[in-house]
Amino acid sequence: MKYSMKTDMVYVKIHRYGEEVVVAICDEKLLGKKLVDKEKGIELYVDPYFYKGELMSLNKAFKILGKATIANLVGINIVEKAVKEGFIHPDAILWINNIPHAQYVVYH
Q: InterPro entries per the record (predicted)?
């Protein structure tokens, strides 16, 4: 899958389950796409129901991400910034056909 990587716009959606704050963020151009890696046996649908919240800049998204107890991130732009900001360790990235996916959980 090829998509233009240099945009700082991402979709951010907040889901609340009790005290958990789940923040789902995907790069703008991945919304609604199905990521498939046949070699690894992985399919990930970047479901608008889960990811399509507000379209915003990476910087604004990171202000929200800091409040998450659980995060689900898909896309080169958001995952790369999450690594740079110390939210994600590079070894924790799952690559699906050259697109990174990462999750984290904050334990209290």
A: DUF424
